[in-house]
User: Fold these one by one.
Assistant:
Number 1:
Amino acid sequence: GGGAIDLVIHLKGFGFSEALDWLERHFAGALPSAPTPPTPRPALQLPVPHPGNLPRVSGYLTAQRGIAQATIDSLIQSGALYADSRANAVFLLRDKANLPVGAELRGTTEHSWRGMAPGSNKDLGYFSIPAPAASTIVLCESAIDAISCFALHPHHRCISTAGARPNPTWLPLLLAHASAVYCGFDADPTGDAMASAMITLHSAVKRLRPSLHDWNDVLTSRP
């Protein structure tokens, strides 16, 4: 490594390049290889909106997910929710400047499916309902859970972490401005473990565990 190069420079009176050449000739393969450059993150590729599929998406969210039509209409009007060409529900992740940084995708056909738009960066932003700041925040595992939690706790701001993640990079900023932050991850071993890890890392966070598996189950169980 660098110590060997310094030694050859000192003993042989070589310059840096000469010392490298000498070491290569006498100790082939001993020099450290150049670090591998980081793989660039792919550019964000948001699905193209397909307004003709909005009735399918809206019907799925109301009939199967129990979400009020007025809430869906508000999300569509704000641009936070739209339909793509495959009738997926697209929930936008936005950064602090309100710019899209990703999207959660949820299938609405007979085949259950969920994923992220290519190039989404979950550490730059999140899906939130409502968009304006509120004094109390609940972190949920998905956009549908965040919407469901908001229906149950309409005075809270409900945010999706797009998966059970204990330490999103934007969390400290939320903690600095909110009066209370709750981890509302699913009531299962993964949700409990990730909530515990989050509370260990951020002691101000409290647990708000859904009474059923997740917030949408709680919402759809209501009479």
Note: Helices lie at 2-12, 16-26, 54-63, 69-78, 143-152, 171-177, 189-201, 215-221.
Number 2:
Amino acid sequence: MTMDAGTPIDATPIESLEDAARYLESGCKPRDQWRIGTEHEKFGYLRDALTPVPYEGERGIAKIFDGLVDQFGWTPVIEDGCAIGLVQNRASISLEPGGQFELSGAPLKTIHETCNEVHAHLHQVRTVADPLDIGFLGLGMTPNWAREEMPRMPKARYGIMRAYMPKVGGLGLDMMHRTSTIQVNLDFESEADMVRKFRVSLALQPLATALFANSPLTEGEPNGYVSWRSHIWSDTDPDRTGMLGFVFEDGFGFERYADYMLDVPMYFLRRNGGYLDVAGKSFRKFMAGALDATPGEKPTLTDWKDHLSTAFPEVRLKTFLEMRGADGGPWSRICALPAFWVGLLYDAASLDGAWELSKDWAPAAREQLRHDAARLGLKAEIGGRTLQEIAIDVLELARGGLKRRAFLDTGGSNEAGFLEPLEEVARSGRTMAEVLLAEYEASGRDMRALYEAHAY
């Protein structure tokens, strides 16, 4: 769940690099406790006008929140008198800066459970939103809205980020307001297991970008990319994004990642029920008690947790690993992302196979692949092979891993069926973005037809 001003504070002091690394290490879990946490964002829109849903008003996000509370028992999260999120059991609904509606799912054991959770969530949202004539769009980028059209959510931390983003990159405000993603959070058993999973998932994140590429339009025009969302991250903030080459270096572990995070500039501190703007300041200085905004004060575990959530590399480490390379997409792709990564990372043979496939890629080639995947999709190349060829091999590994997990639904099917939308993309070599663009042009650039085709 996104941290907010109302989240309880853990005042455990963080006084050293070892303290910071120890928190990351606390995420280690035995295999039988590994879980799957799936997050997905979507764009709400007014069906009659094809415009973004504002926060307030009779057809606003606050009304949707009210409906979810009244009809389905969610509990609101309040900041400065406004509902900025909802919680229920171990799941949460939160708002991204431009009103993107995000479900952060509960930690679940199987992808069958994840898909049931997504289905229930979309049913609830439709039940509340349909009477308001509000729909939800599953794409990685708003296809026609300009940045200035996007509503702004009443979350103080976003105001701090909006002021800081233009100082460090050209597209950070677009990242905040006009992009949408699917992510999955996965566990590790030990430091060695974390390192192996981090390296494999980071190397293959551009493949996920290509397989899920779904954002070829900006303000109604082709933008020259299959994943403009992924391209946006290359011009957001170099201090907190990217492929993290040090992950592949000898000696990488919890302490090395914590050391990296100490030099990622801060955004904010939560103090006295609100947010203190410390954008651009050093957490390393904070840990030494030398932060100008809080002289003599040292960080708490809550400060460290908050800070960890403000780095945006392609794979992010907290007390679990977050896969961050995929565009938002339709219902089937929400289930396909955890299937892809669980099949690779939660099965030893598949993990070994994926590492053998990617271990010899040079650092510069991995970085170039990140950019090429956003532009060329499955036509991008690394190590003399196209991403299409690699995708076919990697999806076979993932399928094998899911079969060996042998978690069956009530009909006796294992989890491998969730990979089928990705296998179709790999066989054809055409990303979702290329199909969308062809359909858009064939329709005479009919934006309403596009919305209808890609709404939930």
Note: The radius of gyration is 21 Å.
Number 3:
Amino acid sequence: MLQEAELQRSTVYRRCLPGGPWQRLLPGIILMQSSAPTDEQLAVAALLYGGPDSLLTGVEACWRHGLRVGDLRDRRLHLLVPHKHKLLSSGFVIVERTHRMPLPVFRAGLPLAPTRRAALDAARLLRAEEPAAKLLIEAMQRGSCTVDELSEELEQGGQRGSAIPRRLLKEIAQLRSVAELHARHLVRKLSVGPTHWNASLYGPAGQYVGCPDAWWDDVGLAWEIDSVDFHFSRFDYARTLQRNTKYAAAGVTVVQTLPSRLLHEPGGVLAELEAAYRAAAARPRPPVRVEAVAA
């Protein structure tokens, strides 16, 4: 646009020098102000750099789709461009050339990759399981993606960076939160691990009792990982009281644990579970049956 205005390169260069009124964001992209660019200006600059067929993907796109991404979001932007475009990453923009350009989803006028593609593109660049797992579960809970859809998207893409998300998708297929992923890792240290995860429990008359996060069927012990942040809505907290009443009426022993303790007090959680198992084993098993696939 500046070239169309016949503004000389030397003039643009001088105005973009330190202390000048403009700044160079990316090759060929000038911001005509001296103050720090906003998130919106950075996103527009990235898309201008990528060209008319480019899309935002990764963490930024996930955030714009309404997913909770926490401290994963920074000012690096992941851009998808058609493979035929010979464009390189530059500055704050990570350029990924792809033969599989998805149809854009527009949010606030900006073209984004669909949620499942954006979440997997982000997970492929992460090198740690916990943030990748949290992001994929967030895509399922808030982005309405299924494990099958995410797995299909992953298989259709390249192999680069796919090992962690592929392993996680297999593991979290039956989980309801990233806290349950931590729980599965923790219980490997127990003398007796749970027999089921997310088991549906029914009383002797066929009445529904509950669906604990973990279940020891041999002794009738339930484990619930309770937190507003790790369940589907804040109304679940009110249902906790009703849930515990049903457990008590059915004679089921239940251990409740906050997700934060899985990371910060693992020894204490393990001790509580061991003690609860011994106590449950010392009394008659409650007359409940389970309908679930064994762990």
Note: The radius of gyration is 25 Å.
